[in-house]
């Protein structure tokens, strides 16, 4: 059995980190880049030579929109309507996540758009079945 076959699940490790308030990625030893959220191999070069790394949780909201109704999954019904967006992490990766600190109403979304890129900080939303990554407006 190869080393890759005995490694713990990257997905389980990611969600255990979210539960503890840690934001985890995989760093590739071949190209040095991060894969976030983590998977078993590097999303950039395809190498299986990756190891766990924690990231800052800091980023920049590039753009945001609101969800559609009904929520895309029952776990999100309690927080709908909500805002989600594309965030460029301090480490460079771009992720999609729920955005906290702004209501999903036209006036607030328009004001956010006019502000341009906005700093955000990652946090964990505790849902009934698993933790969920979210970012809160920081500025």
UniProtKB/TrEMBL annotation:
InterPro entries named in the record: ChsH2_Znr, NA-bd_OB-fold, Thioester_dehydratase-like
Pfam families reported in the protein's UniProt record: zf-ChsH2
SUPFAM superfamilies from the UniProt entry: Nucleic acid-binding proteins
Domain ChsH2 rubredoxin-like zinc ribbon: 16-47
Lineage: Bacteria, Pseudomonadati, Pseudomonadota, Betaproteobacteria, Burkholderiales
Domain of life assignment: Bacteria
UniProt protein name: ChsH2 rubredoxin-like zinc ribbon domain-containing protein
């Amino acid at each position: 059995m190869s080393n890759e076959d005995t490694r713990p699940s990257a997905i389980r490790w990611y969600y255990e980190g979210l539960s503890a308030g840690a934001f985890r990625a995989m760093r590739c030893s071949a190209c040095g880049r991060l894969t976030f959220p983590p998977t078993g191999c590097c999303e950039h070069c395809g190498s299986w030579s990756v190891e766990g790394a924690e990231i800052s949780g800091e980023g920049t909201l590039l753009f945001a929109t609101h969800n559609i109704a009904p929520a895309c999954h029952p776990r999100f019904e309690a927080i709908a309507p909500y805002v989600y967006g594309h965030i460029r992490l301090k480490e460079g990766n771009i992720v999609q996540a729920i955005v906290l600190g702004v209501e999903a109403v036209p006036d607030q979304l328009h004001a956010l758009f006019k502000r341009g890129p906005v700093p955000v900080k990652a946090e964990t939303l505790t849902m009934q079945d698993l933790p969920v990554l979210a970012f809160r407006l920081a500025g």
